[in-house]
Amino acid sequence: FGTPVAGAILGIEVLAIGDLWYDMLLPSFASSVVAWEVARVLGLTWHYPRTAVALPFTMGLFGKLVLFSMAAGLVAYLLVIGMDGFHDSMHPLQEKRHWWMPIFPTLAGVALVILMFFVGRQYGGLSLPLLSQALSGHHVVALAFWWKLLMVGITLGFGMSGGIITPLFVIGATFGSMAAVPLHIPMAAGAEFGLVAVTAAGANAPVALIVMGMELFGVRFAPEFLIVAIPAFIIIGNNSVYPSQRVRLQKSPWVPIPSGRALEEASTDPLPPPWVRGKPEGDARKQKKNRGAL
What is the C-alpha to C-alpha distance for residues 171 and 123, in angstroms, rounded to an integer? Predict the structure, then answer.
């Protein structure tokens, strides 16, 4: 993406929610800078439209951006539960019906072809023209983010592993372009804010995305990037497009995930409810037994 500093931070921030592993700082920065320089030597260039103008900061704008950020966190959450839902729907068919695994990507491909027939091909693949259109401040279809989100959910839910950062960019930028209209924010600025907020939430990497926003679009929106990244990161809770992320930060006492566990392992050993936590183990067992008797 042409963002070596943000790439280095992202490389260590995605390892665990709420923690930066400083012992990985040197290799992460070294690999990021070397990769960036090699790409430049090979002739790779990066261009992101910077058509948005600086906004006069007011408390009204602050409130709008907080609402914007919370909505962006919910968009990222929809993507996560969509991917998980499609992926989980395969297990009964595979285990009980003994479906052959390659059938699922095949069915996903058929579903995508049908969807693109009705809504257009611009939502397939990386959708880079759609991203550029949104960042340039041009009008995009109101539900563009939803169609892209649905196609990404189907692709990665049924198709196993795949790249996710660029789809997060597109979903965030198109959502931001749409949400900017009712909030009376320029669409180009809304697209930039949406890209940062949705990606920060989906990847649980607010620090990397604040820096990435400044590397991509300039430092003039640094305060706004900070405002949209943090609430989105909080609102998504302990959910992520990376199920191997380990939990170091309990964003809420209601999230039943033990610290140090990967998100994909959390369901096998959940924490007790908040009103039981912190009590002696015998009391917790007694309450569980009483509930079973009822």
Answer: 10
